[in-house]
Design a protein that fits this description.
There is one protein chain. With 163 residues, the protein is an alpha+beta fold. The chain has 6 helices and 8 strands, in the order αβββαααββββααβ. The strands form 2 sheets. The chain has a 6-stranded antiparallel β-sheet, with helices on both faces. The protein has a two-stranded antiparallel ribbon with strand order 6-8.
Length: 163
Amino acid sequence: DLGEETGETILLGIASDIHVVYIAVIPATRAMRLHIPAGTRRPIADSGMGLMLLSAMDDGEIARRVARATQAREPGAAPLVHEDIMAEIVAIRARGHALSASRIVPGAGIVCTLLPTAEGSQPMAIGIGGQAFEVVEKEEAFAQLLAAKIGRHFAGESGAAGP
């Protein structure tokens, strides 16, 4: 539904230690589109979907993952600042979605949110990805569309907790 309605790339991701793994990708139908294959990994503390997934975790787990991500940084990479990451996570929790533009791939962006999961299940996130300037311009519309589609497809599921 999301892909048909937006024409953009739709990404489903999970956290895998210090990375996000896109476990499913629906390619965009637009001429200008992201090419991201399923299985692509992104750093959890640096990417929009990674921060979205971290927002579903308790602060202790976030601290542990950020510490591991810090240890795994490439030499010369900008340091991860735990306080800055937590400030972003607080904002994401308040908004209910994350926006990332040109953060990992120059010119690419994503608006994403959590999918409802059963208590104790691994968090999953879904996002609409496209050209950064369009994603920024359509942030609120994409966030509302994600919420509406999630509400429609997950309505009435017992044990599901919303974003």
